[in-house]
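Can't paste images in this forum, so I'm doing it all in text. The chain is below; anyone willing to post the predicted structure tokens underneath?
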Amino acid sequence: MLRGRYEVTTELDHVTLPEEICSQIQSTWGSDGVYLLFCPIDNGAYRVIVLTTMPKKIKSSLTISQIDTRGRIPLPEPLINRLKEIGSDSVILIGLLDRFEIWIPWELEEFEKKYEEEFPEEVAKFNAIFAELNPKTK
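Text version of the structure:
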């Protein structure tokens, strides 16, 4: 189960996953042979799905990679280009139980602000549940 919110610094074309994310992936899916499927979503973000087998076919908009021995993952080229374009050197990883998302910080803030304005009661309920489940979330 992938849980938590982490702001991490990018390193050229990759990012080192926080130890918590790596250990959660290893304990849930095993330490060897997992693949990460990067699916573009809103605002330049990516949903990352953990797979235990390599898909036979993937759409051209998707990227597959693996975690290296140092816990690093390569970022998709469009995300790298976007980070360079806006001059950002960090991303936010959000664990969503069976997957995680990668966001550019200010774009996530804008998305959350818009959502909070549209659905204030739902946001308050979610935040209460999230705080209860993740007291140490960064």
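Strands lie at 2-11, 14-16, 35-40, 46-51, 63-65, 72-74, 90-97, 99-103. The first strand starts at residue 2 and ends at 11.
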